[in-house]
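Minutes, project check-in
Item: structure for the 287-residue chain
Input as provided by the requester:
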Amino acid sequence: MDINWSNYNETLVKRGEFYLDVQFAKTWHPELAAMNAEKRGRPYIYPDGLMDFCSVAYCFMQLPYRQMEGFLRKIGGFLGFQAPDYTTPFRRMRKLDWDIPQSDEPVVIAVDATGMKVTTRGEWMYKNWRGKERKGWIKVNVAVDIKSKKMLAFEISDSRCHDSMMFEKLLDGIPMIKDVMGDGAYGNRRCYNYCEKRGMDEPPALKLHKNCIIKPQRSWLRQKAVLEWKKLGYEGWRDKHEYGKRWAVEGFFSAVKRCFGEGLRATSTEGMIREVEMKFKLYNLIM
C-alpha cells in the first residue's frame, strides 16, 4: 500500500493544533447570544465551544475535572475570560452532541465490535478472585467507511450482546450503502435479510462458516452467498470482495485505543457510555 508520508506527517502535526484550538474565544459572545435567544430560565454563561474544548482536555489530555478547572484558569488568564468551576464541564459535557458526517455517495463499509474496559483489575485477580463472573466491558459497535477510514455510525451495547444483534441498528443511520464487510459474527440470516431489505442484489462481504449450508425458506441472499462461497472457496471469495479492506475498522479501533487507552475513567454507567461516545466521536473529528 502506497502512503503519502508527507501528508500523513502533516495530519499528525495538525492534531496538536486541534488539542489547543481556542477558536471559542473569538466566537464567545455571538455563540452565547444564539444559545440564549430562545432559552427560558437562567441564561448560559459559557458557550458550547468552551465545553468542546473541555472535552478535548478530558479525553486527549486525560485531565480530571478538578485539574481541568486549574487548566482553564491559566487559559482564561491569557484569553480574558473567567474559568468555570469543575462542576460546569461535568454537567455540560454530558449534553454535547456531535453529528457524524455522512457521505453523499454509496459507500463500502466495514463493521465490527470492540470492548472498552470498565475496570483496571488484572487477569490474575480476575481468575483467582472473581471466579466465573464476567469481566467488565462496554461493547462498541462501529461502521467505518473503508475509503475515508472515518466512522459513519456507532452503537453501544452490553458485553453479552451478540454483534449481529446490533447490525440493523448500526446501519440504519447510513443513507447509501454499496457493500458491507464483516467477520463471521455477521454471517447469519438476520444480517443477510437486512441487506436484502436495503436493496442489495449481490451478497455482501459477510464471512461465512466453513460448514455453511443452504437452508430452505431462509434468506435468498444468504443462499446465493453460500453458493458463491462453495464455488470460489475462501481465497477466491476473499479476492473477489477485496475482503482485506475490512481491516479499516480494526485500524480505527487500534487508533482510538492508542490515543485514549482501552480503559474508562467514569464510574457510573451513564458516565461510561458518555465517555466512550466522546472518545470515538472526537477521534473521528481529527482524522
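Outcome recorded: The longest strand covers residues 107-117.
No further action items on this chain.
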